Amino acid sequence: MTNHSYNIHTAKQEGALASWRDGSTKQAILNFVQQVSAQDSPTYVPPAERIAAFDNDGTLWCEKPSYVQEIFVIKYFHEQAELHPELREVQPFKAFVENDRAYFQALSIQEVDKLILQAVSDMPQDEYVQKVRSFFQESLHPHYQRPFTEMAYAPMIELMAYLRQHEFQIYLVTGGETDFVRQVAEKMYEVPHSHVIGSSVMVKLETHHDQPRLIRQKSMLEPLNEGPGKVINMHVHIGQAPILAVGNSNGDLDMLLYTEHQARPNLPLLIHHDDSEREFAYDHGAERALQAATMHDWNIISMKNDFNHIFSEIPAEAACGTYK
Amino acid sequence: MTNHSYNIHTAKQEGALASWRDGSTKQAILNFVQQVSAQDSPTYVPPAERIAAFDNDGTLWCEKPSYVQEIFVIKYFHEQAELHPELREVQPFKAFVENDRAYFQALSIQEVDKLILQAVSDMPQDEYVQKVRSFFQESLHPHYQRPFTEMAYAPMIELMAYLRQHEFQIYLVTGGETDFVRQVAEKMYEVPHSHVIGSSVMVKLETHHDQPRLIRQKSMLEPLNEGPGKVINMHVHIGQAPILAVGNSNGDLDMLLYTEHQARPNLPLLIHHDDSEREFAYDHGAERALQAATMHDWNIISMKNDFNHIFSEIPAEAACGTYK
Questions:
Q1: d(CA A290, CA A283)
Q2: The pTM is what?
Q3: B116, B132, B167, B242: which could form a disulfide with B51 (CB 3.0–4.6 Å)?
Q4: pLDDT category, A7, cuts 50, 70, 90?
Q5: SUPFAM superfamilies of this UniProt entry (chains A, B) (predicted)?
Q6: Quick check: helix, strand or coil at residue A246?
Q7: Which of A286, A221, A224, A282 is nearest to A256 (CA)?
Q8: Rounded CA separation B248/B17 (Å)
Q9: How does A143-160 read in b/e, with b if 16+ C-beta sit within 10 Å?
Q10: Do B178 and A125 touch (CB under 8 A)?
């Protein structure tokens, strides 16, 4: 592609970002991708350095009314409380049994991570993976009544596909627990396990008669993957900064600033949940990020104005190109 | 390739593993790679799962008379002791100034990691990278008098190239410090930063006026990448087990056992330093690994018998296909 003035018209012909409404945000994405990938562009970036970092909860899939991971933990704790009635008097089981919504709605993603620890420590890694997979097979989103694996934002799936076409390497950089997110990352986003950077549970290697097995422990690896932890873990895992990053909350702010302050072209993007009709409208937990985005003149993706539709319309298998 | 009886003869025609002498080890490698990559093979493994893990020190490059990283630290400490004479009475500076060889030869790779910490904590990450790069540009191996970047074992470079041809994904899984090894991994082994799993120094994100910068701290991320830590960090970074792994010491034993105990075809390989003429002969630090290799009937790579030559003969640029 030698034409720098790639525009919405050209994109339409190619069918790129079809779920995005025409506007300055879509145009900024198209411009940026062309500027870094056209060989004769003065701001060309070689493919090995075209790193894109995506937050997950609220950026790639719906995080309301609760984090998906939280719904998984609640379900698991309910099962445990039925198996062991004595647990019903102990927190957090008590809150589950009594359906104490206030208790849960006050939780941050890090606190949910800790609940997962409590739930599944001393569990062999392969058993945990089975539990997560069963959850995704059996459970529906409480509001939309669709499988969670269909709760990805269609325009974001398209954005990832568009970046991949232009030889970007895509990483999920999520506050969620790494092995939880990995169980859907390939199916939903075509992101392999090695490209999921999350908050990781410490595992122990137990070797009996030379037979090693990974067992989940009660602690998390430092730093948790939120705020500055996202930048530190990207450094440890990738060893270079992204040139494009997308987030939606205060926990993504450091990652977006880090992306912006490289001596290279870059595109920080912030999703704004402003669509109360098709999804949920909320600024809570994103106040600092929204303020920074305005100050730094970042592109804010308005779900209400920039997305033609939020989720894939009908069978996700048909609607999302990447869904298997 | 539909022929399962790929053999040394076929390999010769293709020029594969030319620096390896014909023998059971070379044959085992050729067989294994064919068995997992031939589409009609009953033991076919899809490319996404063809993970190969290579230790670095003593497996890919020479670790005697000292770890390269140790030579870097000693040089740095010498410079510091000259700049700050009062340091000459304090260990480890005292040992450097007095050239106390016994002090250093007793160090493990983890202890060398800790010395690095001491040397370069509170240093901005980009400054550290510059120091490491200068070291590799200016220093020669004390025994061979060649740049360290020419101290890779030529047969191992060939093995990596051969695996890459067969769509393996290659990771360095090193006890050394991640950002130290990264500075040569691409040039020497064609391994990008994201595929170097090592012992990582904690970095802090310092943000002044919204300008973030990574600063190296005095602590290491847990677990250090040695012994069981190699398995745990592979799980965190890659999320799947290797089907081929190469090591040379006790610190690689867990990684080799982990590779062996997957419900898939696998090839654990142990390098034996038994060539006192062309390199160094030593079993120290590899006793348990050698014992396990015999018990488990792993292929032991004899540097004396399996390697036609150890290092690339003449200008590495010409001899190693992968050297840039």
A1: 8
A2: 0.91
A3: B242
A4: low
A5: HAD-like
A6: strand
A7: A286
A8: 19
A9: eeeeebbbbbbbbbbbbb
A10: no
Given a contact cutoff of 8 angstroms between Cβ atoms, the answer to whether A263 and A243 are in contact is no
Mean pLDDT of chain A: 89
pLDDT at B6: 55
Based on its alpha-carbon atoms, the radius of gyration of chain B, rounded to whole angstroms, reads 20
- Tokens 């010498």 belong to residue: B78
Tokens standing for A86?
């004595």
The Cα–Cα gap between A270 and A249 comes to 8
Structure confidence at residue B322 (pLDDT)? 33
Q: Could you read off the pLDDT of A20-43 as tens digits, one per residue?
A: 999 999 999 999 999 999 999 999
Q: How far is B221 from chain A (nearest CA, A)?
A: 7
CB A250 within 8 A of CB A179: no
Show residues of chain B in contact with A182, CB under 8 Å: 239
pLDDT at A2: 38
Tell me if B205 and A254 make a contact (CB, 8 A cut-off).
Answer: yes
> Which residue in chain B has the smallest CA separation from A232?
B203
Provide the 3-class DSSP secondary structure of residue B203: strand
Would you say B146 and B68 are in contact if contact means Cβ atoms under 8 Å apart? no
pLDDT digit string, tens, across residues B48-102: 999 999 999 999 999 999 999 989 988 888 888 888 888 788 777 787 778 787 8
Nearest alpha carbon to residue A171 among A247, A272, A227? A247
Amino acid at A25: T
Nearest CA to A231 out of A209, A253, A250 is that of A253
Residue B101's Cβ-count burial label (10 Å; 0-12, 13-18, 19+) is exposed
List, for residues B243-295, the tens digit of each pLDDT value: 999 999 999 999 999 999 988 999 999 999 999 999 999 999 999 999 999 99
Contact by Cβ (8 Å): B249, B55: yes
pLDDT exceeds 90 at position A16: no
- Cβ neighbours of A235 in B, within 8 Å: 125, 203, 214
Which residue of A lies nearest to B219 if distances are taken between CA atoms? Answer: A222
Counting residues of chain B whose pLDDT is more than 90, the rounded percentage is 72
pLDDT digits (tens, 9 = 90+) for A236-275: 999 999 999 999 999 999 999 999 998 899 999 999 999 9
Could you give the percent of chain A with pLDDT greater than 90?
Answer: 72
DSSP class of residue A284 equals T
Q: Which residues of B touch A169 (CB under 8 A)?
A: 194
State ipTM.
0.89
Identity of the residue numbered A19: S
**Whose structure tokens read 């420590």?**
A121
Largest distance between two CA atoms of chain A: 69
Say if residue B3's pLDDT is above 70. no
**Cβ burial, residue B30 (10 Å; 0-12/13-18/19+):** buried
Of A125, A228, A236, the CB nearest to B200: A236
Q: Report the 10 Å Cβ neighbour count for B79.
A: 13
Q: How far is CA A203 from CA A216, A267, B38, in A?
A: 4, 35, 34
> What are the beta bridge partners of residue B266?
none
Rounded to the nearest 5 degrees, what angle is found at the Cα of B211, between the Cα atoms of A235 and A4? 80
Single-letter amino acid, residue B266 = N
Tell me the pairing of strands B267-272 and B201-208.
unpaired
Indicate the residue type of A251. G
